[in-house]
Amino acid sequence: MVGFFRQILTDLGNLLRPPRYFAWQTVIYMSLFSWLMSMLARAVFATPFTIGLLATISWICLAIGVGWALETNKIRPFGISIAPWVSGAILCLFLFGSWGGRWLQPALVAWPLMSFAMVAIPTLVSWDLSRKSPSPVVRQQLALLFCLSLLFSSWFQFYFRIQSWVRDYPSLVADSVDNSAFVYRIPGQAIALPAGVNHLTVAEAMLQEQVNGKPWPSVERWLLNEEGQRQALQRQVQAEMGQHPSLEDALWRLDLQPLTNGLGYTLKLWAIWTGPAATQGGYYLEKTCQLMPVNQNVITQTEDTGAPPGYTTTQWASLTCNLETPRQAGNPRAMYGSS
Amino acid sequence: MPITNLLSELGIMPLRAIVFQSLLLMVAIVLEAMVLRQQLRLGYRPSMQYAATLNLLATSLGWMAFLAIEAMLPLPLRSQIISYVLFNRFYANSWREMLPVAVVLAAIAAFFATYWIKLQGLTWLLKLLGQAPAEAPPIPLEKDRSQIYDRARRGQIAALPGMGPQGPSPRALAVLQANAASFTAILVVLLVVNQVGVLGW
Asked: Counting beta carbons within 10 angstroms of the beta carbon of residue B55, is it exposed (0 to 12), middle (13 to 18) or buried (19 or more)?
């Protein structure tokens, strides 16, 4: 047991002790030393320049040391040398990680180019900072590698461009991307509801305010001006949504269609998506509301006993809306005729 | 589940574009290497390396051009591009009628832009590798003209402006043929894939 531990200790000692001065362990120790010095500088309130310089040296030494260690220890998964990628990642973390905010985007875009630099600099610059001139074979490899890293960087940029599209048009996520020749969504993600649901909720609240609990005759008069109400509703919802403006608001169209239903009406509220969609003809969200006349004798009785006869039989409007907003393919106007 | 959170954080990824582009790039590189090898009498290895370098350069510059132009386009056209990328179809808006023409024009522009980039890239690459043949010194105009007349008298092809004394350089012709071959192959592959619906789209 003791022998086993001793063996581990000797192995660890061999790993940590550099075999010669010119080894990766030296660089890692330089990085550690530099980092400790920067902590010390911070503790004794040195100038920010000193702290920054020491931290920078520490990060650069760490990147070089880790890359060197991976290279000398022949850590090559699938035969690919990952040392420059790891060093490049460390340098990108250092360069962009301190930015805060959306630092991941520039870091990932710069990562392949930084890795290329980690490969290219040792072949182009010698230790005494004079320019080396590599052989044509190496130059050809470097040119190929540069173009490849440029392509990787472009792919990262394309990924972030797609994310910015989704930020601008959040409802795009609610659609299926199975037909796409470009993008893939790993299954099992929670898919957000399209923003049209919010539009419908706002519209419902406005309808409640305007017709619910109003006298039935005035509600029927209100419905006569169907086109006017439709436009008013569209304006109001746009104004309400304008507090959190999004590029896609212009692509949602709100529509309203009353249909007679016995004594009352069925109101269909539609949020029609006129933007990019996975299916031909797009889709719309439908909210169904029932507008019914009800006798509310209670109100009249408590209000006034000497009310004129017939007032007690006055009917009041009651609006109840379904909670669900089923998604339908196509355009509702094609089915119900144009208004 | 942290892994699910990470995945939903990643959102929509251009994985299909990456896979598809890698395959098309391989087809293009192999085809162009064959053309370059025959036309320029190169070895197997250098022709592959040249073709790979040129195609990767043209592709990444193309991506940059696309990303830059896309950001500057008017909103309706941008949303058509979004529609094509995400849903593989255009949708009905004010640009719908003009799109087929625009796509064909963009493809033709892409062909010539790619050709120019590849030709320039090959020149740079040969210079970088120290294999650039000494540029023919510009011949003084008078002498040049007399040479043209001379050659014309002897029944040889007259040199056109912008070309070397021996007509278009073999390099320019080879790159043009290589570019045409790879564009044709890619177009055929895309048409077949769209018709047959391979890979589920």
From this structure: buried
Q: How many residues does chain B have?
A: 201
Cβ count near B116 (within 10 Å): 13
* A339 closest CA partner among A247, A248, A233: A233
* DSSP for B58-95, written as a single string: HHHHHHHHHHHHHHHS-HHHHHHHHHHHHHSS--SSTT
Q: What is the C-alpha separation between A337 and A274, in angstroms, rounded?
A: 18
- DSSP label at B164? B
Q: Which residue has the tokens 């058509």?
A: B80
Distance CA B141, CA A109 (A): 49
Indicate the pairing of strand A184-185 with strand A264-273.
unpaired
What percentage of chain B exceeds 70 in pLDDT? 75
Dihedrals φ, ψ of A140, to 5°?
-60, -45
For residues A149 and A109, give the distance between their C-alpha atoms in angstroms, rounded to a whole number. Answer: 10
pLDDT tens across B185-199, in order? 999 998 888 777 655
Closest among A310, A305, A282, A280 to A295, alpha carbons compared: A310
Q: How far off is chain B from A135, nearest CA to CA, in Å?
A: 8
Residues 119-158 of chain B with CB under 8 A from chain A are: 125, 128-131
Shortest distance between the Cα of A163 and any Cα of chain B, in A, equals 7
Predicted-complex ipTM score: 0.82
Instruction: Find residue A184's DSSP bridge partners.
Output: B13
What DSSP state is assigned to residue B42? Answer: -
**Burial label, B12 (beta-carbon count in 10 A; 0-12, 13-18, 19+):** buried
Q: A interface mutation test: which of B54, B64, B69, B87 has the most A CBs within 10 A?
A: B87
Query: What sign results for the dihedral spanned by CA atoms A98, A103, A108, A110?
Result: negative
* Consecutive H or E run containing A54: helix A48-72
State the amino acid at position A128 in one-letter form: D
Averaged pLDDT for residues A4-19: 75
- Nearest Cα to Cα of residue A272 among A256, A284, A286: A284
Both tokens of B55, joined, read: 């195609």
Q: For residue A101, what are the CA distances in angstroms to A1, A98, A104?
A: 52, 9, 8
Q: What is the pLDDT of residue B121?
A: 94
